[in-house]
Specification:
Layout: H1 5-20, H2 26-33, H3 37-49, E1 53-55, E2 61-63, H4 65-87, H5 92-102, H6 108-121
Antiparallel strand pairs: 1-2
Helix pairs in contact: 1-2, 1-3, 1-4, 2-3, 4-5, 4-6
C-alpha cells in the first residue's frame, strides 16, 4: 500500500493525539491539523478503507495494529530528523517543519543511516 503524504500526516496526528488522550475524535484531528470536518471525514474514510484506522463503539478514532506500526514509523522519522537538523544548528521550528516534509520522502536506507549516526552522537 502506497499511502500519500496527507494520509501519513493524519496517521501521525492520530498517534500523537492518542499519546495524550485515550479518546481521539475527528474534531480533535481537525483542530490539530487546521483542517475542516469534511476534509477530516474524507481522510478517515480512506484510512479506514486501507485498514489503518477504526472507530470504536463511542465513535472515537483508533489506530489498527497496522496503522499503529506505520504511525510510529512516521513519528520516529519526524523526531529523529528534527533532532538531526537541530544538531546541525537549525532552529527548532524550522527543523520541525523541514523534518515534517523530509520524513515522507527519505529512503529507509538513508533514514537508518541518520538514525544510527544520531544514536552514536546523542548524549
Amino acid at each position: 500500500m502506497a499511502l500519500q503524504e496527507s494520509g501519513e500526516m493524519y496517521l501521525e496526528t492520530i498517534y500523537v493525539l492518542s499519546q495524550n488522550s485515550t479518546a481521539v475524535r475527528g474534531i480533535d484531528i481537525g483542530e490539530y491539523m487546521g483542517y475542516s470536518k469534511p476534509s477530516v471525514s474524507r481522510a478517515l474514510r480512506i484510512l479506514k478503507d486501507e485498514g489503518l484506522v477504526k472507530k470504536d463503539s463511542d465513535g472515537y478514532i483508533k489506530l489498527t495494529e497496522a496503522g499503529k506500526i506505520l504511525a510510529k514509523r512516521i513519528y520516529e522519522r519526524h523526531t529523529v530528523l528534527t533532532r538531526a537538523l537541530i544538531s546541525l544548528g537549525v532552529d527548532e521550528n524550522t527543523a520541525a517543519e523541514d523534518a515534517c516534509r523530509i520524513e515522507h520522502y527519505i529512503s529507509d536506507k538513508t533514514f537508518d543511516a541518520i538514525k544510527k549516526h544520531m544514536e552514536k552522537y546523542d548524549r
